[in-house]
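User: I'm curious whether this sequence folds into something compact or stays loose and floppy. Could you predict its structure so I can see for myself?
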Amino acid sequence: MDSNSKALVKKFRDAYVLDGSRVAEIGSVIVEGTGSYREFFTDCEFVGFDIEQGVNVDVVIDRWDWSVESESFDVVFAACVFEHDSRFWLTFSEMVRICKKGGVVCVVAPSTGNEHRFPVDCYRFLKDSMVELAVWQDLEVLESGMLEGDGWDHVYLFARKK
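Assistant: Here's the prediction. I'll summarize afterward.
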């Protein structure tokens, strides 16, 4: 987690998340030296998902086969996860699947930055990649763009499930 990703998740929370929402964070484990986005969702039912047990993880999921009920969350987000996911498009598809109709999805991913393996570092993203993910999954794009700064530039997508 860095200041840009934190600012984008807070922006998403403030603009699109209602108090009392059921929120799923994908890739929630706290890596040494980083913090948690959970602090932005204290007035929500927050569930942290990851592929391994650790601090801030409520539910461990299989990387490619989530056992999570469809349309069971109002909000689903992943911040600083997709660069580590060799099949991020499958993760995105699962995020959309577990999001309720009318719910919101958020992705924040680096566009630039140094290699930081956890356990791998596979991708950097451009602004159009976020919109294309939304188009592929038939989501309404609420906002998409790039936040530059502090050695890391991040692209983001805020979208609603139709």
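Summary: The beta strands are 22-26, 45-50, 59-60, 73-79, 99-110, 139-147, 154-161. The two ends are 30 Å apart (CA to CA).
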